[in-house]
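Re: the 937-residue chain
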Amino acid sequence: EEEEEEEDVEQDVFFCDDVKILGASFIDGGKFGHEIEFSNDENWEELCKFGSLLLFTTNRFQTFFSATVIDITNTRVIVRLDPKHYTLYDNVCGCRFTVAIPKLHFEPYFHVLSGLQRMAQEKFPMEKYIIQANTTPKPPDYIAELCLKTYKINGKHCVDISHPSWPKFDSMMFNPSEHLAFQAALTNEFVAIQTPPGTGKTTLTLQVVSTLLDNVNIDTPILIVCHSNHGLDQILEGILEKTKKIIRIGSKSRSKKLEQFNITKHRPKQYGYGALARDMKMLAKQYANKQKLINDEIDDVSVIVSNEHIKQEMRKIEEIIQELEKKIENARNTADMNVMRKANVVGMTITGAARLRPWLNQLGAKIVLIEEAAKVLESHIITALGSHCQHVILFGDHAQLRPYPEVYELSEKYNFDVSLFERMVNNGLKCCQLNVQYQMRPEFSSLITPTFYNDLTNHWSTENRPDILGMDKNLYFIKHNEKDNQRRRSMSFRNAHEAKFVIQLARYLIKQGYQQKDITILATYSDQVKYIRKEIEMTNLPELSRLSVSAVDNFQGQENKIIILSLVRGNDKRNVGFLSSSNRVCVALSRARDGFYVIGNMNLLVRSAGVWKQVEQSLESLNAIGDTLNIYCQNHPKILIPVSNGIEIAKILDKGCNRKCGAQLQCGHSCSYPCHHEDRDHVKYKCRQKCRKTICGKSHPCPKACGEVCPPCSCVETIPNKPIPPVVFTSKNQLTPVERASNYPITPTRLVANNPTTLAENTPNKPATPAVSTSKTPIMPEGSTSNSTAPTRFITNNPTTSLGNAHNVFTTQYIRGPKNLITSAQPNLNRPITTPIWNNLSNNTTLNGKILNNSITPKGRPTSTFDYYDESHFATTGISVGVVSPKTSGSIPLSLVLNKKEDLARSRGLSTRAFRAVRSAVVSVGKWVASPLLREK
């Protein structure tokens, strides 16, 4: 533990043992290199990046050769070897190396230093400001070249460029500080504009670019250089509303809007490029064959032949390959240059500008805008300015993050951490500062004013920010005394206590209704970021899968609705590391819009860094600091729950506030469950109170719980014996809607015969009454002809009545109104059927109706069961179905059909075919009746 609590350790170089060079490899796009393999225990993914510098040795660096990473994927690393390796080793593929990997990213420094070397033979851009420290800028040269006298603003206002004070533009809604900065940006050839957090830097930049595009007709594009890909995307997306002639350099854009404007989408196919690539691939194969030959000769000890001639041939092949690489690169860059010259705006990152400096010099951009200029090393900005540059606009804020040299001594002894922006301001160059912030709550801005900004004011719109749901405070600092720790071979720190707290707090806020995109977890150390991401992954919770977690240094220029900040550091040695930097503190405290929650060791911070004493005083004046954070249940907002760690928040998420929910339900009862965050609207919740409804005409109470479906009443209601009007068939094989007479409140449905036959009445003791048919042609079974004799159809209202040898479908139902349907077993006339009939039947229940037995059919023709009733009408009215045996004149229990007792059913007079038809019909009808849609119909 003592070892883990040591101060930050500067480890500039990492070492990897047992590294193998596998062999030559050709990469699509015209690159040649060697694939290398790390041992399994090396965490090379964190060490190797595109452009990284590697040093290979087998004798503890008494001799070594270098290599640079030219391609990297999840499974392999391709490097370009320094030709020096030929003088040191007969065959690099036969050795195991120790590799040194510097912490710093080598590629951008290489391009910057190369650019500075070339500048010795070129005109130095903006020399009188950068070198001679002139603080009185003049208008850009192109204004005189184009004879510009006025600028037209937004197509409405016309201003005199030379006039010292421009009129106010009310329609543009500039505040006074924005107005001054806007004028300075358009009339001074070298200008610095300070943009504190939330003061509208992007809006001002877009207005400046729009005005230049409208008024300055030059033959070169405007060059926009940004520190980050996110900032570049944000500005270029805004410029798209003004012009579509945009080119973005670089492949790390996350904007779908800018995909079609990437330089790679506009590169024409170069004549001969394919031939060059084929030549390179062929030479790479020859090189690999030569390498294999050396391996074979080394393995064969009986062959004593010098390999020098093979190595010389390999050197020649490699030289030819390098020449081809240069030709391909020149062809590509020439094509890119032609595309960029046709654009109005070209955008790239500061690293890309340094890499492409020779080509930017050829492009000759006269207007250059640098975003986040106060965060970029001065040397990087200078190399991004071509010798033809006439107008430089620097946007930045030297109160936020400064440049970070990888070598600490460069900051301590040579002030490399002072940007060109800050140096120009220190030299007395007039700096226009935006002083109205539109981003954060006033209480948030009080943490940085006047600590970092003396005259920053709040726009009136910031006072109307919504309160954070489920939280007692919108701003709060949670104090603790838990220790941090440091992993072996890591310069960074982590704090498990804080990690668990911020994860559970984010989860709690998401449960309150916020989306994952509304919340960002920030940490002051990269190792804490990795630890939090790993912990989120281990929770395997979908509500956290897309949660944003970032380091403070990578979040400058960004914001979010809710920020949860982990300060990480905690020890007994008063070492706070990065947190002593006021610039980093300023960024950390200014990212939130609506909700801001910080967890850290305030006692340690106050003792170690003076800036935190002012922050603590601001928090205390707002009553926004303490050992516990008060959250409240949205169901019971008057009850505050203090939490101090992640475990306590997790318990609330799992169990609520331990009080009875008590929410009012639609049924009139209150929720009796313990407080719950899930299903707050009680869509899935089923009330457990006793049901208050009646289920029959005799006002019998429902025996079920309120949230359950009311069952049919078990009582039987006597039905008056009244004449029954017949059902009339009007078309073949279809039943018409049931004829209802207003004189009969309860009407049984009847099926009647097509030919004059007897019809069974309500009571078996009464004589039968002939049925009536309105159709001249008898209703025929499907598949039969007009000469066939249709079977007789009967109906009965008594389930136990035997109908002799009649073989037809029988159903009984009682109808009152078009929707209030009941069966003879459900006598409540005022309640519609709401449950499938199968729920109320036992295995021995004899049901209404009779299914046709195929043992007797007209003229020996088989007859389908479904020929004799309208299937949809039958299903949607919830008719109970059963079987009556024609041979034994007795009823067959439904269980024989449902339980597939075919032999028993046959013994009681039901044929195999009839049995299967009955079962199919019963199962089908059961599914239909169970459908809520059909029941409603």
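Residues 1-10, 298-305, 727-891, 933-937 have pLDDT under 50 and may be disordered.
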